[in-house]
Amino acid sequence: MPKYLVQANLVGAGIAGLRKAGGTGRRAAVDRLAESLGGRVEAMYFAFGDTDVYIILELPDAASMAAAALTAAASGEVAVKTTVLLTAEEVDAATKKVPHYRPPGQ
Prior knowledge:
alpha+beta, Alpha-Beta Plaits, 27% strand
């Protein structure tokens, strides 16, 4: 099942909600979101710095990930950045593909 790295930043009321429900409450909410889309949370960490939360999600497909990100962002309480994660085997498969490409200007 595809994996995604989500970097989330809490905004406005999202920070107040975290203070009220705590980290375990937020983790439970993210677990429910992933499960409702047929996936699971592999890991979730809160952090200092430019990103408040790092989440590794396992979801059935990109449409499920998009639905999760859109739902979270629509709340107005979290900003989400998503990165598709590839296994070593997927990278091996990619290196064996030979696409046709013409660079600009050639």
